[in-house]
């Protein structure tokens, strides 16, 4: 009966009322354990080296292969994940003040308005251990405390990324140093304690376990709160028991790895090819990432052992993901993230639980903006009207429906610089790493389109160029891609549609972010790029849509005066205006 109740709850069906007084928290109300790693890739084969993740999650759950972060760096991505809002709507766009970090999260009023708070309001106990946000430090951890947690044990800066010198802060206690102990092993014990505590409370719970592996090791001489902090980056440090594993493993030698010819745009296309010494170091860096993930893999196994022991596995959803992806050597880049390329934005997502298909995978498009709505819907909590994402289809039937009905796009945005995390310097022009981008996957097309803050454009047809080596919009003399077609149409037909779509997405809010074609075609009829490519819309996109995505200047944060045109500030035609205002109300009041 318990399993049936879970399936009914998942399907949104109400059980027949019983004359007997129901317990306040019926045992059928599901639990959630969310495991969130830091910088884990989906394209460098890291999951292949995690046998317990394969055993407990990939073989027993559903793998969302086309899951994307929308800002490929820690803090903005995590705030998006917890709020269901894109970074241009949270205004947390960096890892450090003034544009990001925990202080920015607080100043934007988000501490009272994010997932843990909503879960507690729905009578869920909430627990968290590991990394929460950047610049959550030994000095500001209680100014204020993060809201919404029944119990917590947070990693704190400046020791968050120090594998052998971590500091944790539990509940209302003073921070405690664990110098010499291995960070992921300490976190595992804290996760097990919180899980036992959650089960003992006999209430439904949501537990987040957020190890900082496989992030690089960082020695911080200060934090983002200081005037001139000095950060020293080095390869991740594995636990002693794992330090000799994978001795012959190398970064996958895909076509984009340290290519002979430069690729990309802006500062990236100016990178020099890495020499043999640099490549050898990056292979070492890669191996240490895989080794650091072994303790995470053991942590996953330990959690499942306790779920079996407590006999609650059948009533618990386990979700596994990462804040952003990672590159090592692709496009000649040093180890790091922050770019819009597939290695950086496509991240793991695996879901296991009642009603979830086992040993399944799907390519439906999902993003971090969808996770908060998914958790709320999963737990039968009303969705919020200001979400920029939609719940992720979880059952096989929902996934089949989504193949034809779900949105096909991802909004990608970034502000500020891109840091190399190995021992080799990165090009200082990476300080102008601000861009807007669009990732779109539909029937017959698989594209990435971006506009950088220097107004350089990129377009990759990933059906024929999956490694993003040939920019179809390059202005270099050797570009010979002008005859390329997409859906049998010239690039000149496709780009205006992509640019108009990106113009909507770069400033969207709420359901406009989910259904942006409605903003361009308020009378309906268009819900995909293929639909927008119908010849009857040529004049609209090629003649009427004169405003294009561009930046006024390159800046480090979200400053409207630098952002260029915003879709809702453009003088639209009457039919578009009628879509924004219906019955005298703006769209965000009626969607």
Automatic annotation (TrEMBL):
<feature type="domain" description="Sulfatase N-terminal">
    <location>
        <begin position="30"/>
        <end position="381"/>
    </location>
</feature>
<dbReference type="GO" id="GO:0008449">
    <property type="term" value="F:N-acetylglucosamine-6-sulfatase activity"/>
</dbReference>
<dbReference type="GO" id="GO:0004065">
    <property type="term" value="F:arylsulfatase activity"/>
</dbReference>
<feature type="signal peptide">
    <location>
        <begin position="1"/>
        <end position="16"/>
    </location>
</feature>
<dbReference type="InterPro" id="IPR000917">
    <property type="entry name" value="Sulfatase_N"/>
</dbReference>
<dbReference type="InterPro" id="IPR012083">
    <property type="entry name" value="Arylsulfatase"/>
</dbReference>
<dbReference type="GO" id="GO:0005539">
    <property type="term" value="F:glycosaminoglycan binding"/>
</dbReference>
<dbReference type="GO" id="GO:0018958">
    <property type="term" value="P:phenol-containing compound metabolic process"/>
</dbReference>
<comment type="similarity">
    <text>Belongs to the sulfatase family.</text>
</comment>
<keyword id="KW-0325">Glycoprotein</keyword>
<dbReference type="InterPro" id="IPR017850">
    <property type="entry name" value="Alkaline_phosphatase_core_sf"/>
</dbReference>
<keyword id="KW-0378">Hydrolase</keyword>
<dbReference type="InterPro" id="IPR024607">
    <property type="entry name" value="Sulfatase_CS"/>
</dbReference>
<protein>
    <recommendedName>
        <fullName>Arylsulfatase</fullName>
        <ecNumber>3.1.6.1</ecNumber>
    </recommendedName>
</protein>
<dbReference type="Pfam" id="PF00884">
    <property type="entry name" value="Sulfatase"/>
</dbReference>
<feature type="modified residue" description="3-oxoalanine (Cys)">
    <location>
        <position position="74"/>
    </location>
</feature>
<keyword id="KW-0732">Signal</keyword>
